[in-house]
Write a structure and sequence with these properties.
Layout lengths: L1 E6 L5 E7 L4 E9 L5 E9 L5 E9 L19 E6 L6 E8 L6 E5 L5 E6 L6 E5 L6 E9 L2 E10 L1
Antiparallel strand pairs: 1-2, 3-4, 4-5, 6-7, 7-10, 8-9, 8-11, 11-12
Length: about 160
């Protein structure tokens, strides 16, 4: 997991956010960007997702750092389990969601260059969701489980 903190000159924490809770990360560097945010880059190891190794570059704009408690979810406060199957899939991708506190509002599926290809809105506390992936081209995709434009959980799947 990557935890980003915004601090004042006395090192008091003003805001924080958690990213990518399903992998182990090695930080290589942080670069300040002109918009007040930063670029974070390094490598990651995802033992729970096929033991994959990958690199990451995370662009964090200043407004993405949380500056109030509204919509701020500490990972320790979130008790959830996500089961996604079958992976790989040639048809429907099934999500079993078990969130005990903050419930997601949508599932976003993106291609391997970050373009959103499918969005599934959640209007009530549905625990089992099937998303039709037959329209997707063969390849790898990322799903993000979101609430109010904040990522709660991400994972990868393959479309055959």
């Amino acid at each position: 997991m990557i935890e980003i903190y915004k601090m004042d000159s006395d090192l008091n924490i003003l805001a924080s956010n958690d990213y990518s809770p399903n992998a182990f990360h090695s930080l290589c560097g942080i670069l300040k960007s002109n918009d007040g945010g930063c670029l974070v880059y390094g490598s990651q190891h995802a033992p729970y997702e096929g033991n994959e190794n990958d690199i990451y570059v995370l662009k964090i704009a200043q407004e993405d750092l949380i500056t109030s408690t509204e919509d701020h979810y500490q990972m320790s406060d979130l008790s959830f389990h996500v089961n996604v199957f079958p992976n790989p899939t040639s048809g429907f991708l099934n999500f079993e969601l078990d969130f005990n506190s903050v419930f997601p509002t949508e599932i976003v599926i993106s291609d391997n260059i970050g373009n959103t290809v499918l969005t599934h809105k959640l209007f009530h506390k549905t625990k089992n969701i099937s998303i039709d992936c037959r329209c997707l081209l063969s390849g790898s995709y990322v799903y993000s489980i979101m609430r109010n434009n904040k990522t709660l959980y991400t994972g990868k799947f393959i479309k055959k």
